[in-house]
Amino acid sequence: MRVALVDYDSGNLHSAEKAFALMGRETGAEVVVTSDPEVVARAERIVLPGDGAFPACKAALDAVPGMVEALREAVLARGVPFMGICVGMQMLADLGHEYRDTAGLGWIGGEIDAITAPGLKVPHMGWNDLAVLAPHPVLEGIATGDHAYFVHSWQFRVTDPAHLLAVADYGGPVTAVVGRDNIIGTQFHPEKSQAVGLRIIGNFLRWRP
Amino acid sequence: MLKTRVIPCLDVADGRVVKGVNFVDLVDAGDPVQAARAYDAAGADEICFLDIHATHENRGTMFDLVTRTAEACFVPLTVGGGVRSHHDVRALLLAGADKVSFNSAALANPDVIAEAADRFGSQCIVCAIDAKTVAPGKWEIFTHGGRKPTGIDAVEFARTVAAKGAGEILLTSMDRDGTKSGFNIPLTRAVADAVNVPVIASGGVGALEHLAEGVLEGHASAVLAASIFHFGTFSVREAKEHMAAAGIPVRLI
């Protein structure tokens, strides 16, 4: 099985590459870091990381000729399992408000709003415990109270509550995991969330939606 | 609830841990990769490497260490020492670092922070500030291991680099570093209260109470220590249990 980790020159995907490669060895998956839409179109799993500001990430993704089309073809038309991480997850939304309004991929209804946590530091940076709201194959073995590593200042507000799979508490609920059908996204960094994160990555690689 | 982070720091020179790490039976106590793996297994929330003799010639050694650590440790890894520009940041991120810390280069030109944050995001840009008390309620940044004053006010500079896009500040109490007498609490609190990004308190930890003080009185979001962990005085777990008993939320694994 070939897993495409989409490289669109946005931030740091090398930690993710190492974690997916480790779990790929356990699950028999081959992980390739690629900016080639052809490779993405043929992949059997797709991972979209993303660090930094929403508009910069979206512009960088749009700047790779044919990439968004390849993602749409694979994920929406062929139903290839897809995982977005951090801003890669936020780009699933309809609209981001960071700096300026920027259209997302629109695959999971919702918008990206600033974290408002009076008296608390922003970014929300560090380990926070998850509250799992709905069972999901990618969250198998993950329990409410397990910790994951977050670093973000903006968060996903889903339109349909059924798409909200897990939250953390930071001055109120903060979206941690969203998903529908063959699409899942984590606000936290599974590649930096030690055993909990590696389990999620392994689950994703075994997932057959 | 967000947890207060406990971060063991490894001082590295020429690819080796300075003074070694003695808290667990390592085949090679001087190997930073083995030490990082042991800290990861012990429940460290992040790991920090500081290249204390960073030179152009030994950069390759550091990249190799970072790569091998990133292949084995799945908690955030911060690397500092000798970082001069976004080119250095890029090279360290490519090697597998999660955050990169600027120090003296940011003093010479705070715009290096903005250039790096614009390219890679604030989440991976840390600014280290080494300061000491020069008058009551006044803290100045020092370089060269605390020997050379810069005339730069620590609190003002923290505001400046946070505005430039530093996602976190690693604040070392230079007048406490190595003394085991605890963080410079007024300094830590002044900086932590002045900026809206997380502040990591560092320098002077000799007892578990010091870690709790840094958070409760210094308002730090994370605490960093080296020798108490390296020499096996306390384990990461003991540190966290003490902090938990003091009412500080921590991640216990």
Automatic annotation (TrEMBL), chain A:
Every Glutamine amidotransferase domain range: 11-201
Pfam families: GATase (PF00117)
Location in or out of the cell: Cytoplasm
CDD domains referenced in this protein's UniProt entry, alphabetically: GATase1_IGP_Synthase
PROSITE patterns: GATASE_TYPE_1
Organism per entry: Paracoccus limosus
UniProt gene name: hisH
Recorded GO CC terms: cytoplasm
Role: IGPS catalyzes the conversion of PRFAR and glutamine to IGP, AICAR and glutamate. The HisH subunit catalyzes the hydrolysis of glutamine to glutamate and ammonia as part of the synthesis of IGP and AICAR. The resulting ammonia molecule is channeled to the active site of HisF.
Taxonomy, superkingdom: Bacteria
Signal peptide: none
Listed name of the protein: Imidazole glycerol phosphate synthase subunit HisH
Keyword field contains DNA-binding: no
Keywords annotated in UniProt: Amino-acid biosynthesis, Cytoplasm, Glutamine amidotransferase, Histidine biosynthesis, Hydrolase, Lyase
From TrEMBL, chain B:
Reaction(s) catalysed by this chain's protein: 5-[(5-phospho-1-deoxy-D-ribulos-1-ylimino)methylamino]-1-(5-phospho-beta-D-ribosyl)imidazole-4-carboxamide + L-glutamine = D-erythro-1-(imidazol-4-yl)glycerol 3-phosphate + 5-amino-1-(5-phospho-beta-D-ribosyl)imidazole-4-carboxamide + L-glutamate + H(+)
EC numbers on record: 4.3.2.10
Active site residues of this protein: D11, D130
Localization (cell): Cytoplasm
GO CC annotations, alphabetized: cytoplasm
PANTHER family assigned: IMIDAZOLE GLYCEROL PHOSPHATE SYNTHASE HISHF, IMIDAZOLE GLYCEROL PHOSPHATE SYNTHASE SUBUNIT HISF/H IGP SYNTHASE SUBUNIT HISF/H
Domain of life (superkingdom): Bacteria
Annotated pathway: Amino-acid biosynthesis; L-histidine biosynthesis; L-histidine from 5-phospho-alpha-D-ribose 1-diphosphate: step 5/9
Family: Belongs to the HisA/HisF family.
One annotated GO molecular function: imidazoleglycerol-phosphate synthase activity
Pfam families xref list: His_biosynth
Oligomeric and partner information: Heterodimer of HisH and HisF.
Main function: IGPS catalyzes the conversion of PRFAR and glutamine to IGP, AICAR and glutamate. The HisF subunit catalyzes the cyclization activity that produces IGP and AICAR from PRFAR using the ammonia provided by the HisH subunit.
Keywords noted in UniProt: Amino-acid biosynthesis, Cytoplasm, Histidine biosynthesis, Lyase
Name of the molecule in the record: Imidazole glycerol phosphate synthase subunit HisF
A Gene Ontology BP annotation from the UniProt entry: L-histidine biosynthetic process
